[in-house]
Amino acid sequence: MITANAAAVSATRGGAALAKLALRRGERSLLASIGLHGALISASFVSVFPIFWVLVTSFKPDTKAISPQPKLLDESNIDNYLNVLSGAKGDFLGWFGNSVLIAGLTTALAVFVAASTGYALSRFRFPGRRSLLLGFLAIQMFPFAVLIVPLYNLLLGLGLQGRALGLVLVYCSTTVPFCTYMLKGYFDTVPTDIDEAGRMDGLSPFGVFWRLVLPLAKPGLAVTAFYAFVTAWGEVAFASAFLSAADESKTLAVGLQVFIQQNRTEWGHLSAASILVALPAVAVFYLVQRFLVGGLSAGAVKG
Amino acid sequence: MAEVAYVNASRVFPGNPPVRAVDNLELAVADGEFLVLVGPSGSGKSTALRMLAGLEDVDEGTISIGGRDVTNVPPKGRDIAMVFQSYALYPHMTVAENMGFALKLRGVPRTRIKEKVGEAARMLDLEKFLDRKPKALSGGQRQRVAMGRAIVREPSVFLMDEPLSNLDAKLRVETRANIAALQQRLGTTTIYVTHDQVEAMTMGHRVAVLKDGVLQQCASPRELYERPANAFVAGFIGSPAMNLKTVPLTGEGAQLDGVVVPLPREVLDAVAAERLTEITFGVRPESLRLVGADEGDAVGRAFELTVELVEELGADAYVYGSARVGDRPERFIVRVDGRTPPAFGQRVRVAVRDLDEVHVFHPETGERLSG
Ligand SMILES: Nc1ncnc2c1ncn2[C@@H]1O[C@H](COP(=O)(O)OP(=O)(O)OP(=O)(O)O)[C@@H](O)[C@H]1O
Ligand SMILES: [Mg+2]
């Protein structure tokens, strides 16, 4: 009986294999489907759950936030948010403004510098081009922590230590190499014929860059802008070293430390503040994600 | 409207050794003329065109447009429109914006732009597509948009770099005729690059043949065909190619498989002056004919050919066969009547139709010796 069953099973397997051969393009077998969905679901869970838990925690009072038997709802309310926003725990809105200013300036400056550098690297052959590219690559491998002391000295020399502009420059020096690399790659995908057609139509070299190449590299610009913003937004080490210790000059990421004190951590408030900090990053992502579709330069050439 | 002149213009690409992509080009194009630049791949056609456009430096010599020296003028100051092989349409702009972009940059009022774009679109049958982006167009439509972008500007010179090479054969023939007609109508000086000699012969008022950056000959299509200046032009223009063979000389003519093809007096004089024992002998497939068995008088003037391949094209057929020249076999192509082609392996006798149609070139320099 059992052997008969086994035979039947193997027969159906054979049938399935045959059916698999007959699958049309774009269709998946059941097994592949299950495997694929399983992998996707577990990956999503791994990345979403911690954030979800921060969200859950942010509504709980500090005393209930950490518990041996965690519950989804445990005297949950929005007091944490109200406390954080009202400034009862520190000048949250002031920090928020500082962060917006610093991250925004960093984004604008880094993207502008990286775009013009990337364009030059993509279009012109000049002495030192290769070493510059190599340098940008090598810089990425440095642990940025080792830069704190030399940068501190530099900023002191420039008279920018403790000022927001100094921090912006520091962020640019870490983001520009990556952004330049990224954008050079994007510009390389825009055919040089388009530049030349623009020159013939009466654009100056800068006009070509501004009116043709930049619009065509929007996806690349979006990615680099997002990268620069997020880097500056969440950074702690440089921000604590290069901004003055005064409470009103802190960025959000530095300010959040008020919730972590020597003998007690206000987990509920910390979570609420974290959620508030994450929102602008999400907003920026939403703003740029519609450009993150490839194929913008499709149609330029014969195709 | 303007005439164009290259005066000893060269472009030398740095390298080891440096590449003289265009070498001492001396070429004058008349106002309203349609000049075709033709040559094999890598002969410097595109480079010559781009030098005129201002996209490539002129390392030696000068270039002038309409009598004005533009050697160091940037592209925007040259009043030239160019159609690229890849079309190079702006992907983020609609067809109308693509066509009107140059006018917009010049500050032409919006209504005027619209008018001119509409006019060009009507001419090129593009009215339905004005609001589309290039990626939503077929290859032929994109080609027309690229043409339209050039026309709308009413430049003094049109430059076209192989604008038809991305189209299928039928569309290419059609577009070829359209471009020629359009140029006729607009009367704008046009320089057109192609490697397709049929395009060159059918479209150009004059054709300039380039090889390795050096201008070989610039003449009307007929002149180029009938009196090629050297062996390269002779072999390049015409399809199938001219039969070009190095043959030994006798006192009164060229020695071909026991047959002496008599040569005109002036050629023999030129040959004697140079003390040559061999010449490059050229005869087009249609200048050869099969000799019937009944033509007794042709004996002594016809040579024998063993048929190796017959290409039937309907009205005509081309016979590829080998004949002995000196002590080695050489392949000849003969055009014959398509209704009665010889069979494979058959031995046929071939004679030159008219001695005026024989071309003689110097065996080393390739220069034309016959008048
Ligand atoms: N930027 C460059 N650097 C070095 N050499 C170059 C450069 N551009 C072109 N050349 C060389 O110059 C010569 C002429 O090139 P060009 O593009 O003008 O040829 P072409 O006649 O247009 O050929 P095709 O029919 O294949 O387009 C070639 O030998 C090419 O290798
Ligand atoms: Mg070319």
Description:
Chain A: It is found in: Cell membrane. Chain A: This is ABC transporter permease. Chain A: The chain crosses the membrane at residues 30-55, 100-121, 133-152, 164-187, 208-230, 267-288. Chain A: GO terms for molecular function: ABC-type maltose transporter activity. The complex is a heterodimer of chains A (303) and B (371). Chain A is mainly α and 303 residues long. Helix content of chain A is 70%, strand content 1%. Chain A has 14 helices and two strands. The longest helix of chain A is centred in the middle third of the chain and has 32 residues, at 92-123. The model of chain A is unreliable at 1-20 and 295-303 (pLDDT under 50). Chain B has a six-stranded mixed β-sheet, sandwiched between helices. A five-stranded antiparallel β-sheet of chain B has the order 15-19-16-17-18, with no helix packed on it. In chain B, α2 (95-105) packs across α3 (110-124), α2 packs parallel to α4 (139-152) and α3 crosses α4 (139-152). Chain A binds chain B through residues 191, 193-194, 196-204, 207, 212, 215-216, 295-303, and chain B through 53-55, 74-76, 80-82, 84, 86-92, 101-102, 105-106, 133-137, 139, 142, 149, 153, 166. The complex binds adenosine-5'-triphosphate and magnesium ion. Magnesium ion (MG) binds at residues 45-46, 161 of chain B.
Entry keywords:
heterodimer, A: mainly alpha, MetI-like fold, 2 domains, 70% helix, globular, B: 371 residues, alpha+beta, Rossmann fold, five-stranded antiparallel beta sheet, 20 strands, binds magnesium ion, sugar transport (chain A), cell membrane (chain A), MetI-like (chain A), BP-dep_ABC_trans_perm (chain A)
Rg of Cα set of chain A: 26 Å
What structural category do the secondary elements of chain A indicate? mainly alpha
Average of pLDDT of chain A: 83
Question: Biggest sheet of chain B: strands side by side, in what order?
Answer: 6-7-8-3-9-10
CATH class of the largest domain in chain A: Mainly Alpha
Overall CATH architecture of the largest domain in chain B = 3-Layer(aba) Sandwich
